[in-house]
């Protein structure tokens, strides 16, 4: 566009000034120039565009004002007035300016722009003129004239820079509005925005500039919002060049590109409409740092409060979510941190985030797993509805993380949620119900072995679950209802926590008592504090400090005193901490360790006042005035759990119960109909009643008659507690005598009335043996054995089940079980065998086992009742073995019979016996030889039982090793403590295994190998002190002995040597260090092994090379032509186990929940009937009626079976008692004058499946047996055969897929976790859930 010809001024270029204004030249002073200019300004201000005459008249003046004299005048007042005149000239002469020269116009606008800097000082006297100038320029849009100039961009850049630099917080809204109008008109009416001009705007958005001038940021933000439609294209071009094309040189702001995107998005997302796809491209960059920068940016954009980017741009959102799986750790970490803001600001995106957070919760990086927990917990603390059950589940999983930092964060996070929503009910009952599982989960963690976990659980319990800062009544109400709502395992954990704290108080008391002696030598288990190594050093230092500071000892004595109140405890802890604090030491690890100790021993919850508050709550529940229903528990549950709580506290805080009010309330509980309530109340009296006799005689006089009645007619548990409670009183012996006299005339014909008296009699004889041992002997001989145990008065239920519920057991059998327990308690009370009563009892118990529980062999008793009696007999022998005087007289045969109970045919018998065995061993109450019994568990058909046995072995071995470390005197008793010394007992036990009849047969040797490996695998996990060589030396030494059980029996000795060779084979395959020299010469038990002369040397190899190869790699199988057609189905990724599992992998023995049989083969032409499942109601079923059964008892579709499962199955060996004919053999031998082996001898103790190739009806076990005996034997073996024959069925896992069991063996499992058949199995917890936390 061409500028028009400049107008010619009137008067031939003569300058006409307004009236009264003289000529303005450089000859006059500045003051005079200013004075005259003000009049010119006034003239131009009054003119408008319609004054054509005046416009022409003052045209020359307008041109004169643009001369160099004015534009470069040094006086700022002159320049300001000239600028105002020029602005008015542009207004008057619009739309065409009187100046036609491009250079002149540029000079004029740059001049005017410079004058706008005066707007900065709002207090200046000339500010109004500056404002007038700005207002005039904005209103007329004078700068739009510059669009025609080639270098107009320079003018605009200078203008924008000036306006952004001068704006400040003293400017009013009008100033800002005029600036906005001026700049927006330039952007919106121009042809485009250059990069330089865009930079002048965007630079104000950078955080550094933003913080320097907030008003400039606001001005830029408003400008961008107003011009979004125009400027968006320019912004997109800028980011395209920087992000996509990588041209960072196009702008000085290139390095701030991500900050700018964030700001622009916050201003108006429309500004970035074309930029977002470019970010998706950058998310896939190969540069990790670049991806990290983009992720940080997008995290802020997606997580912003009102951001709708995720819904508007789903492709970008999905691409961003993909970065949760980025290979770069900082990127994944940034994504996880973003999730917290996203969950809080955008709950609708929680579903999208859940799956990605699930994966990151298992991230290999500890920091990422930690931040996942922080993310979820922070969102949950803001609003529980923001986190779904899945997200909370991730936190729950991480409480078992391998890293302590992650576990701690998860546990503390859950504790905070519990306190906020369950304790304080900040979001109502519905939210509290959503996370009610937290309390149980947190207490379950007390089962973990780590002392750090235990300490944190104790801290959480004291601060979050039952805050110790609450008032006593509120605190006890919280504890009362918490205890009522906990699950069984959580209750056990809480009980164990109190017991551990009580035990530690006892240790500290021992320390303080030792300080009263001249020489102090004290050893504290460092396992009670974190970091055992440092803890031991700190405790030594603490012991030294106690010796030097008597006041500190006094405070500590007060803290652990039974009468210490909760308030006193807080004062004591504060005083002790203050004494040990060193101001100049910022970090004091010693003080931290002492704090851990004080926190564990301080009674911050329970004192006399607390027990009174609990008893009042219990009374309210009994009266029906408590808030039980509001707290979510029924009154009955509250009463029962409340008494259980008091019972536990009576163990740990007995002194707190000594008040008449407490005991009066407990007396009321004794009169309630609920058996459990009365039982708990009696036990509380038993635990706390030592001072009742001297201080509360009225309570005693009321209590004893009630106890007397409970001992006679209460439940067995009540009778036991009642007898013990009576015994604590000085007058107890008189009342026990009265009870004993009442029980003299018992009637075996009414077994229902026998059970409680038998329990009471047993405990009376155990508690007062001097008084009742002799009178009991006649009762035992004439009534217990002769009249009760040796008689079957009723016929049992012939339903074929191997186990029934307690309610279904016949009263006569329950009485017999209690009679067996009575025998044991009587003997345990006497603790001597002078009368040989123990020998007689052991023979009786052995006979009970040999006869499968049917001692009379009249076949009146049912299978399930026989199982109960076998369990009672095995448990009785095990109980007697805990007393040294009786352990010495238990013969190897009786030990073997007892051990074989762990292979009983009934699942529940195996399970309960294993539990009893483990608990006795882990408390070091049973001799080491009984640990060998667990080796037989390798033959258990149920995977859970094998897994449980392995856990028991691990725990027992760990306990024994720890005991040896902690007790220096244990070195003298290594033979009875060192776990490696279990190997001789195990070898002897396996050599006398009733199944080990053909010592050169592969299948039997394979079983022996698996039993050996089951034990050796755990023993050989580490080669501490060259233990592998010690084991080898021990086995080699056994080969140089003879079997002490039958030293002249060549076959028995051969079996012993064969087992030794298998053991040596297993050890050699496991360890390369076993051939080194043994550190010590092993000592062998003479009760089991007969040491030979030095001349005796047994260097024979009893395993052939072929057999060794078969044991190593498995027996080779022929491959028939059709093998590929009939091979069983397999699961990809799992190895097929070559051994056929001998029974189902289920824990049920009832017909309603039958167990599936293992897959096997059988000749259909030979057998037409199949064995019923283990412990099933119907022992014989038709083969064509067999359905596949899953592990939970449901029938499966036959089409899912293997092709040959419908027609083939094999006999399944059952682990149990021997056939009765075997038990009858000694009796027949005695009639013939042949001495029978004591306790049954070889071949007894387990029922074996019949040989399928034999004819059961024709085979005779003993040629000298009578015809009737042969018929009975044939019938029995026929029944066994029917049980032994089974159908092929798939063993199904919990998800319905085929589970091919992988047994452990040295050659099959080379890793460090060999033999752990339960590794990764979800049922592993169930297998050991019965343990108390202190045992597992």
What labels describe this entry?
single chain, mainly alpha, two-stranded antiparallel sheet, two-stranded antiparallel ribbon
Account of the protein in words:
The chain has 1336 residues and is mainly alpha-helical. Helices cover 57% and strands 1% of the residues. It is built from 59 helices and six strands. The strands form three sheets. It has a two-stranded antiparallel ribbon with strand order 1-2. Helix 6 runs parallel beside helix 8 (152-166) and helix 27 crosses helix 34 (635-652). The longest helix is centred in the middle third of the chain and has 27 residues, at 488-514.
Strand-helix topology:
Elements: H1 30-46, H2 52-57, H3 59-65, H4 68-71, H5 76-92, H6 102-115, H7 127-140, H8 152-166, H9 173-189, H10 195-202, H11 207-212, H12 214-226, H13 228-244, H14 257-267, H15 276-283, H16 288-303, H17 309-312, H18 314-322, H19 329-345, H20 350-360, H21 366-382, H22 389-398, H23 404-423, H24 428-434, H25 437-444, H26 451-465, H27 472-485, H28 488-514, H29 532-548, H30 550-560, H31 566-579, H32 589-601, H33 608-623, H34 635-652, H35 660-670, H36 675-688, H37 692-695, H38 697-713, H39 716-727, H40 732-742, H41 755-767, H42 769-789, H43 811-830, H44 837-850, H45 863-880, H46 884-887, H47 892-899, H48 907-922, H49 943-966, H50 974-977, H51 982-991, H52 1002-1019, H53 1027-1039, E1 1041-1043, H54 1050-1070, E2 1089-1091, H55 1105-1113, H56 1123-1126, E3 1169-1171, E4 1180-1182, E5 1188-1189, E6 1195-1196, H57 1220-1231, H58 1267-1284, H59 1324-1327
Antiparallel strand pairs: 1-2, 3-4, 5-6
Helix pairs in contact: 1-5, 5-6, 5-7, 6-8, 7-9, 8-10, 9-12, 13-15, 14-16, 15-18, 16-19, 19-20, 19-21, 21-22, 21-23, 23-24, 23-26, 25-28, 27-33, 27-34, 28-30, 28-34, 30-31, 33-34, 33-35, 34-36, 35-36, 35-38, 36-39, 38-39, 39-40, 39-41, 41-42, 41-43, 42-43, 43-44, 43-45, 44-45, 45-47, 45-48, ...
